[in-house]
Amino acid sequence: MRTQVQSRTGRSPALIPAALFVLAALWLTMPPAMAATAASTDAQATANAYVVRVDGLACPYCAYGIEKQFSNLQGVTGTTVNIAKGVVVVHVKPGTRFTAPQIKKTVNDAGFTLKRVVSTPQLAQ
Amino acid sequence: MRRFLLKLMAWIGGALGALALLIAASIWLFFAPSAQQPPYRLVASWGSPGSAPGQLDGPNGIAVAGARIYVADSLNHRIEIFDPQGRVQGSIGVGPQGLLPQARPMNLNIAGGKLYVADYWNDAVQVFTLDGHLLRTLGGKQGSGPGQFRAPGGTSAQPDGTIIVTDFYNQRVQMLSPIGRFIRQIGTTGDKGYVSGGNFNYPMDVTVSASDGHFYVADGYNDRIQEFDTQGRFLGMWGGPFGLHLPASINFLGGLPGWFRTPTSLAIGPHGNVYVADQENDRVQKFTAGGRFLTSFGHTPQSPGYSVGAVAVAGDGSVYVTNLASSRVEIWRP
């Protein structure tokens, strides 16, 4: 195994700068919000809540902005935001239903990008 | 063929590596200034999470007048007043009077002996006496017309009473008469501006120099500070190379001295220096009035730890900082 690695490395010294180049390119093109949201998927689903993942959350202004935007939707009883994880939990009255475009628009209007809807009241029950 | 491609990739990789090193060296040499002063040290703090008197939930603003420290207790819809020892002196309710007490006071500023409050939730600006009596409410209905706001983040006033508001979601700064009449705006309503001065990407706070009426704007997601004269004419900006907004993908450089990662709050000290709450770097940075970096201080960055919410400076030079993560108020001194 060791020989194999040495042999491969010996034949292809160009792979080192090439790999560095690729890594640097990946790093430079990675959206900063990804760092905050990439690692975590442990959103808490509740019986009467929509749980959504959002890109771009960075500070309390973001959290309050998205909370405020969701508060304009009928049936919303409260919103909790985890900035570090990029997770928004929208608590709703029983029977309240939103469409995917409705959620996407609400997130967009707050200045962010919807990554995905993690769970809906139906799925959580 | 394969060897040729590998060689070509090596050349490209090598050239790009050399270029990256050259850029890094240039940035370090020309755009990472050394501190001119020693950092401040933490001398006292108080507070805990909660909603009881003296407790805080989301302290996103702070202002100091004499021996009174005003703290925007955002999620408790109020402003709490403390003395420098952290004893509660009173509180001020924010939001529509007599209605559901839903408000979100953000940055606070004191100008001309009055307390200026940006109510992010109600799209309003409220002006209080320092004893907490409401003098005036401006706005109050979300909009993008003249004199309307969409989630204001900060507000203050010039020596002649002209009110300046950072209109967060409208991507502009508005200048209003003392009774709220629209005078002018800086920036284009609803359009984020990234490079040139006089444009904003979610402006968060404003502070006014009491000596000449110049004002500074924390241009939050452009990671820079902009300076304007009394008429709102752009004078200069700083934060990274020439204050130009860098693509978010290379914001990892924002931790360098004099650079920012989401400046959320501003204050001017007794000698005219500008203090910036550099939130995602968990630090406060101090600059001359012209933007020359002097020093920085704060807790160890925790990418981010939200240990810095807002900043204010007392007459004796003590710097008051709200710690969002621990719901505390901290006093830092040289």
Architecture blueprint of SSEs:
The complex is a heterodimer of chains A (125) and B (334).
Chain A (H helix, E strand, L loop, with lengths): L1 H10 L3 H15 L2 H6 L11 E7 L4 H12 L4 E7 L4 E6 L7 H10 L3 E7 L1 H4 L1
Antiparallel strand pairs in A: 1-3, 1-4, 2-3
Chain B lengths: L1 H30 L9 E6 L12 E7 L2 E6 L4 E5 L5 E6 L11 E7 L2 E6 L4 E6 L4 E6 L12 E6 L5 E5 L4 E5 L5 E5 L16 E6 L6 E5 L4 E5 L5 E5 L24 E6 L5 E5 L4 E5 L5 E6 L12 E3 L5 E5 L4 E6 L1
Antiparallel strand pairs in B: 1-24, 2-3, 3-4, 4-5, 6-7, 7-8, 8-9, 10-11, 11-12, 12-13, 14-15, 15-16, 16-17, 18-19, 19-20, 20-21, 22-23, 23-24
Instruction: Tell me the major beta sheet of chain A.
Output: 4 strands, antiparallel
Helix proportion range of chain B: under 10%
Distance between the termini of chain A: 52 Å
**Assembly state here?**
heterodimer
H/E topology pattern of chain A = HHHEHEEHEH
**Order of SSEs of chain B:** HEEEEEEEEEEEEEEEEEEEEEEEE
Q: So how many helices of chain B?
A: 1
Shape of chain B: globular
Order of strands across the biggest sheet of chain A?
Answer: 2-3-1-4
**Could you give the distance between the termini of chain B?**
64 Å
Shape of chain A: globular
Give me the secondary-structure category of chain A: alpha+beta
Radius of gyration of chain A over alpha carbons? Answer: 21 Å
- Over all CA atoms, what is the radius of gyration of chain B? 21 Å
Give the amount of beta strand of chain A, in percent: 15-25%
Helix content, binned percent of chain A: 40-55%
Question: What is the strand tally of chain B?
Answer: 24
Mean pLDDT of chain B: 93
Describe the structure in your own words:
- By secondary structure, chain A is an alpha+beta fold.
- Chain A is built from 6 helices and 4 strands, in the order αααβαββαβα.
- A 4-stranded antiparallel sheet of chain A has the order 2-3-1-4.
- With 334 residues, chain B is mainly β.
- Chain B has one helix at 2-31, and strands at residues 41-46, 59-65, 68-73, 78-82, 88-93, 105-111, 114-119, 124-129, 134-139, 152-157, 163-167, 172-176, 182-186, 203-208, 215-219, 224-228, 234-238, 263-268, 274-278, 283-287, 293-298, 311-313, 319-323, 328-333.
- The model of chain B has no long low-confidence stretch (mean pLDDT 93).
- Classes of the chains: A alpha+beta (125), B mainly beta (334).
- The A-B interface holds A 12-18, 20-21, 24, 27-32, 35, 58-61, 64-65, 68, 83, 111 and B 6-7, 9-10, 12-14, 16-17, 20, 58, 60, 74, 104, 106, 120-121, 151, 153, 168-169, 202, 204, 220-221, 248-252, 262, 264, 279-280, 303, 306, 309, 324.
